[in-house]
Amino acid sequence: MASPAEPLFPVVSPADKSWVERLQVPHILYWGIHVACLLGLFVEATTTSLCLFVGTLALRMFGITGGYHRYFSHRTYKTSRVFQFLLGFLGTTAVQKGPLWWAAGHRRHHKYSDQPGDMHSPRDGFLYSHFGWIFDDRWYPTQLNLIRDLARYPELAWLDRYHAVPPVLLALFCLAVGGLSGLVWGFVISTVALWHITYSINSLSHVWGSRRYETTDDSRNNWLLALLTMGEGWHNNHHHYMSCARQGFFWWEIDVTYYVLRCLAALGIIWDIREPPGHVLTRGHASSGGD
Description:
This protein is an all-alpha fold. It is built from 13 helices and two strands, in the order αααβαααααααααβα. The chain is globular and about 55 Å long.
């Protein structure tokens, strides 16, 4: 149950939103970027632009999975303050607002998963869980009460407030490297693909797949979504035990984000990676039929 100090559904007044949000500019930009994908039909898909597409998609996906999700939301490993900022900066280029807002919303999702108060449950409608919740005024503010451990860093607060700056810089980089084709494929189409692949965890991962663990929500494991999201598709695993950096609990569950984190740990960039405990793996192995 929510405490009196933390309403189940936050009340949002016009004062809680910036002038940009009050003018509905984010809505226009969101759908405008979708429409701009049609430019891909009219500009040549050069080798450079396609490399930019793949590179920006993969790097920003890791910014969401390894940064926003496994670090900022769940603190499943430790790192330096400098690399923490770099993770936040990379995640912000994904055009999914700032690290404080994202982490607070995700912590709320786990607290109320598929219950009243969840920001994006398919029980409120599939399309709402996929992208409709983004336009719900209730979720505009950054819920600082849920991320006090992160809000004490002024550089993260700056990123959260000026979250539009890194995407603009990335767009200019793509334009400089690949011209109009680089901008369209490396930023516009890449961003929309990244959005909907990310959204699939909010929507599809709660309706499509298998359930190894009996959780209080509808989370499911899905190998295809795991491949598309660098490991996030092992969603039932994650909801059963959210405090570890590894979401593919077994060798056959491909978790690219975890592999990258292990490489970073080998280089000394991150450390104290949290693993699933033995009792979780034992229970999961039994549920899998001992494979």
